[in-house]
Amino acid sequence: MTNCCEEKTAPKPASACCPSEQQEQSCHPQKSRPDYLLWVSGSIVLTCYLLYWLLDGHPSMPQWLVVMSAGVFELMNRMWWGLLAAVIFVGLLERIPRDLVMSTLGRGGTFNGVARATFAGLLLDLCSHGILMVGTKLYERGASLGQLMAFLIASPWNSLSLTIILIALIGFGWTATFVLLSMLVGIVTGLIFDRLVSNGTLPANPNHNGVGNGDSLSKQLGDLLKTVRITPAGIAKVLKDGLKDSRMVFRWLFFGIVLATAIRAFVPMDTYQTLFGPTVAGLFLTLLAATLIEVCSEGSTPIAADIVTRAAAPGNGFTFLMAGVATDYTEVMVLKDLTQSWKIALFLPLVSLPQILVIGWALNQVSY
């Protein structure tokens, strides 16, 4: 096994694997502390899932634990396929040349690049947390900040499966309207973020070094397919790398599930639904609920449909779907960890929420 620090006496440049004592980073770092958020939240999720699976609301369980464990069981059963698919996508992205990724997304800082990222988000059939894992990998591969935000904003509930479910719940007309408007918010948000980067308000992606090597997208894709070899060992390596690179998202996902199910256990959902009328107060209550109720896109879609049909407030339903992404603390915290910038993370709701609220208010006026 090759040691990255073969000789302590060998001269080393400033960027060497074994830096000088003045440098903070080292290829032999001190043992890091356990990720308590990941392990504690993950343990609670696992415990609640097993409790519901084994006891299924046994009379000996307190009611709050029955509701919480049932919520964990429901959310994990809805999410698992999307999260597994995201892990696979992330593992595959690790093996796709950066030039091919950037050629597919186009040039950052342009309308074409942001629009491509928006459509890419629409085409991936993943849950909101799965799309977040893929988005972080795209950023690491060189996507601009605007492309990342457009990808995240436009995609969470716009997967093919959820779109079909939403059509069944609220009809084709409202579903198509929601899809088009979410694309609009994604593109506008992406363009604003790229402008904020260009004028120095926000830092640029340090992984961005241009748009590829000049070869056409079809040539790069063909060259890549020629090298593909599917083996059991290769599949295992893809899953292993995908899990490792998705750890940052899982830690906040598990925390969000714990918090969401705790809210379900102690705050009745029907209390929210009776207050979500097509009024300004109802719109802001929807925003508050979307912020507090951390659910994956599979969970938010039926809740939003109830708001549209039972409360007769399509604008509130749209706001619940979109604001759940813009104010999602899982997403905000992952963005902070990814970019090492609280400023970037907090600009997500600052830029997108005004658009969402204006559109939500307008939709309520049209249908009132």
Short synopsis of the structure:
The protein has 368 residues and is mostly helical.
Tell me about this structure:
It contains 17 helices and no strands. By secondary structure, the protein is mainly alpha-helical. The protein has one domain. Helix 7 runs parallel beside helix 14 (about 295-310) and helix 11 (about 245-265) runs antiparallel to helix 16. The chain starts with about 35 loop residues before the first helix and ends with a helix.
Order of helices and strands: HHHHHHHHHHHHHHHHH
Characterize the overall form. globular
Helix content: over 70%
The Cα radius of gyration reads 22 Å
Q: What's the domain count?
A: 1
What proportion of the residues form beta strands (DSSP E)? under 5%
Helix/strand-derived class? Answer: mainly alpha
DSSP, total strands: 0
Low-confidence spans: 1-30, 211-215
Largest sheet: none
Quick check: average pLDDT? Answer: 76
The number of helical segments is 17
Distance between the termini: 70 Å
Short descriptors:
368 residues; mainly alpha; 17 helices; globular; disordered N terminus
Secondary structure elements and their pairing?
Blueprint: H1 36-55, H2 63-93, H3 98-105, H4 111-123, H5 128-140, H6 145-154, H7 160-170, H8 172-198, H9 217-226, H10 232-245, H11 247-266, H12 269-273, H13 280-292, H14 297-309, H15 314-326, H16 329-339, H17 342-367
Helix pairs in contact: 1-2, 1-11, 2-5, 2-10, 2-11, 4-6, 4-8, 5-6, 5-16, 6-8, 7-8, 7-14, 8-17, 11-16, 13-15, 14-15, 15-17, 16-17
